[in-house]
Structures are given as C-alpha cells and as structure tokens.
Amino acid sequence: MASASSATPDTLPAWQTLKHHAETLQHVHLKTLFGTEPSRWESFTRQVAGLTLDLSKQRWDDDTLEHLFTLASEAGVPSAIEALLSGKRVNVSENRPALHTALRLPDDATLEVEGEDIVAAVHESLAQMERLVSRLHAGQWRGATGKPIRHVVNLGVGGSDLGPLMVTHALADFRPKDIHPVEVHFASTMDGSQLADYLSRLNPETTIFVLSSKSFTTIDTLSNANTAREWLLSRLTQHGATPISAELVVRQHFIGVSASPEKMTEWGIADDHQLTFWEWVGGRYSLWGTIGLPIALVVGMANFREFLAGAHAMDRHFAEAEMAENLPVLLALAGIWNVNFLDIRAHSILPYDGRLEYFAAYLEQLEMESNGKSVTRQGQPINYSTCPVLWGQLGPNAQHAFYQLLHQGTQPVVCDFIAPLKRYDEVEDPDTRRHLKTQHRLALANCFAQSRVLMLGDDALEDDGPRPEHKRYRGNQPSTTVLLDQLTPATLGSLIALYEHKVFVQAVIWDINPFDQWGVELGKQIATDTQKIIDHEGDLSRMDASSKGLIEAFWASEQE
Ligand SMILES: O=P(O)(O)OC[C@H]1O[C@H](O)[C@H](O)[C@@H](O)[C@@H]1O
C-alpha cells in the first residue's frame, strides 16, 4: 500500500505538484471552468454497472486529474488494490486481510488465502442462511407456543445494524410475493428505547430476535438481547396450561450471527440457529454475508444474490479498469483533491429517493470509522487532513433544513447527489403511476437544480438584475452526482461497493489503515469504568470535576 516507500504522501513529488497546481485553480470559479471547457460532461463522466458518475462539477480540470493519477501511482494504489482483493494482510494493526469482496465472489470463483480456498466456505455460509430464510418464508419456523413467526427484530449496532437497516429500507419494493409475511425491525440503541417500543407492540409468540454482533461482546446489543430474553421468558414460559421450558423459548426465539460461535453458544443460541462469519470481514463491511440476514429476509435470497452480483461487478471493474476509467479511484481522487488541496473538509450525502433514507447514516460509519485516522500505517502521526466530516439526509428534506448553509454559509462543502433515473414503472394503477412519475420528475428536477445552483450561484438565474447582498449566492460549491439506472438489488450493490473502494483508495493515499477502529475502543473501556462508578462500585474521587458533577446529578435524581 502507500507505501512501497516509507514516504508520507505529502512528501511525494505529485503532492507538491498538486499544491502548486491548486494555487492556480484556487480562485477559479466553477462557472469559469464550465465556460472555458464546454465538454466537461464528456470529460468527467463515467458509466459502469448501472451507475453514472458525474464528476464534472468538481473544481478541477484535466491537468488536476493527471497530477492526481500520478499521486495515486506514487502512493501505490494499483498494487494496494491487488493486495486488498487477493487477501493480503492489509489490516496491519490487526494483522489480517479485509476480504469483504470475497463474500460476493460467484461460486465458481476461487480465492486462495494463505493456502486455503475460501469461496466454498463463503457459499456454504450463504446456503446456511438460505435455509433459515426459507423456513421463515415458508411459515415453518414456529415459536415456542407453536405459532409461525411474523416479526424478526434485529438486535445489533454499527456494522451489525446500519448496513442491513439501510438496504432493507432501500429494497423494500423487492419483497417476494407469495411468501409467509415476515416483518423485519431494527433495535440498536443501548438505552432500550427502540426495543421498548417493539416489546409494547409485538406478540412474543410470533416474534424472534436476531442477535447480530461480530464480536458478540458489544454491550449495546447484549443488553438489548438480555431484555428481549427476559420479555420472552416472562411471557411464554407460563403461557397456557403446560409450562414451556426457558431453553425451548431461547432456542425458538433467537438466531445468532457472529464471528464467535463459542460466545453464541455460551449465551444460549442453539447450534443450528447460529450463522457465522470470519474475522477477516470488518463489521462495517459485513452486510454482504450472514449479517445480511435481515436483507435476505426482506428481499428473498434470489435478490440478495443479485445484490452480491452488483457489488461483484464493481469489484471487477475496480480490479481491472485503468485509473482514468475507474469509478472508485476517480471518486476517491475527487475527495483527496477537495480535502488536501482545496481545503474542503465537510462532505454532505444527499439522496433524492426516499428509499435511500439511511444511506447517509450508513456512509457516515463506512467513511468516518474507516478513515477518521491520524497516524500512518507505520504508526507515525500525520500532518495532513484525512476523512472530512461527512453527514447527510434525504436531499428533498435537507433543502428545507440545512441547504441554506450550503448556499449562503461560510463553509465550503462538497455534496454527493444520488438519484435513480427510472422509477415507479412497477406501479399497477395507471393514474397513481402517472402521478408518482410526475413526483419522480419533480425530485430529479430539484436534484439537478441544486447542484447547478451550488455551482453557479445566482448566475443560474437568467434575469441578472441587481440583487441585494442578502440574496446573493456565491456558488462555486463542488459536487458529484451519482445516477442509478434504477434502484435495484444489483445497482445498490454496485453503489455500496463504489463507496467502499473509494474509502480504500483514499486510505492508501493517506497511508492510513481503514480497517481498524481503535478510537472506538477507548470509549468502550472508559464507559465500563464509568458504569462501575455510577453503580457505586468505583472511586468517584478519580473523576474530573465535570464528570463528577454529572454523576452526582444523576445520583441526586435517584433520591427524588
Ligand atoms: O458487530 P459488533 O461486534 O457487535 O460490533 C458493532 C460495532 O461496534 C463497534 O464499536 C465498532 O466501532 C463497529 O465497527 C462495529 O460495527
């Protein structure tokens, strides 16, 4: 990876060239770039795997791209891609590969990792998942009192929640017909509020829980699972005339998904209700395997396989395309240019399709947990920026909320607009279809208008009369637009893989490890210490004045 040599990226020749080049472009407005280069759409747009990536509204020109390609070469991007996909130990701090791409290899592929072909094992885990899905879809999975299961609540957090939540919401239209209806829900927060809501509404006889945790040690998930188990036991063991054993209740109402079968067994998950995966799948990259169980439950296994195939198409493109044609590389380079050379450190994700409601939340983890790092892979502190602050919301709603800042605030922000070209063809009633298609056109018009206004500012108005200062838009905010031919399991798979690989390429250039998250660990450790003190089992006097005050306020509230 970067570093065939041990040079940090800011000492590479292309980095220096880009710094000088940025000075020449720093004050060139985007509208000037469009004025002087009318063929920017042709120059900066690429299409692959059902996606169109429009990078023409980035504040760059052909020379910028050439210098960025040189930077990527000097940083070792091509060999790093090879190392990632072939299963080298790219996660250096945990000394293991990062093989989420292996989860979407077709079954006739082979991938030998450290002497072992892992493709057969991957497909066996999918087959095992399929068996559970089929039982639930056939109405053959019965709860402890004998009733078929109607509700599945996924208990997980971070990577064991955000990916499945995002995808099940995005692909809800793809539910198979003619199956026993099973509704999927998600509870992640450790405070129990989401879970409490489900427990107040769902029938324990027809509800099962998926305990989804790579490590099977995450307190958030385990505390939700313990509450769910108590709820089931108190409702079901005394149900009817004959008592039902606690063992049967836990057996019939819990599935476990984890990289630690021992811990699942210890918790009480029955062997045949355990789905496993591997340490070499990072949590935030785990939706492609058994952690994707809720996705398969919503869309069916055939669509789940289409989803994997879409991601695999992007993997092949990533592996094979030249840098100048390579969508993930181009998207990554746009980010590097913005963060490190134009000093734009805020990035907004704006889908114009309600089905992508959770896409920004998913990307927040993917990008910021992966690349929110400040030491090199060799452990040296770095003195250049890495991951920008990334946040987002459905674009149409954000227009009525934070777009004001994008248009007239003082922060430079880069935006990703995401929208499907085709929508609503499947709506049966012709009148409703016509109205919904009009709404789709409205959404696209807004999506295209916003990126244009961000680029041109008030020059987007044809009537160029004088405007008072408070109505001036300066424009010049760069953006990317990603169009999906339509939102399908396959194109969503490609879209996610596009961002995964973008994150990887940026990490290579920044010379950081995108596959660990040590910063999260410290918080967990300190929370455990703090909980002891809150529970009167630790030494309050060790605490700083603020933390002490907060704990005392809580204790005082308990006395009221
Ligand atoms: O799947 P789990 O082991 O429960 O982990 C859930 C989440 O916990 C964390 O704190 C990590 O930062 C995430 O990367 C992970 O996805």
From TrEMBL:
CDD domains: SIS_PGI_1, SIS_PGI_2. One of its GO terms (biological process) is gluconeogenesis. GO terms for cellular component: cytosol. Gene3D superfamilies: 1.10.1390.10, Glucose-6-phosphate isomerase like protein, domain 1. Its EC number is 5.3.1.9. It is an enzyme of class 5 (isomerase). InterPro entries: G6P_Isomerase (IPR001672), G6P_Isomerase_C (IPR023096), Phosphoglucose_isomerase_CS (IPR018189), SIS_dom_sf (IPR046348), SIS_PGI_1 (IPR035476), SIS_PGI_2 (IPR035482). The active site is at E369 (proton donor), H400, K524. Pfam families: PGI. Pathway: Carbohydrate degradation; glycolysis; D-glyceraldehyde 3-phosphate and glycerone phosphate from D-glucose: step 2/4; Carbohydrate biosynthesis; gluconeogenesis. The keyword Cytoplasm applies. Catalyzes the reversible isomerization of glucose-6-phosphate to fructose-6-phosphate. Belongs to the GPI family. HAMAP family: G6P_isomerase. This is Glucose-6-phosphate isomerase. It comes from Vreelandella sedimenti.
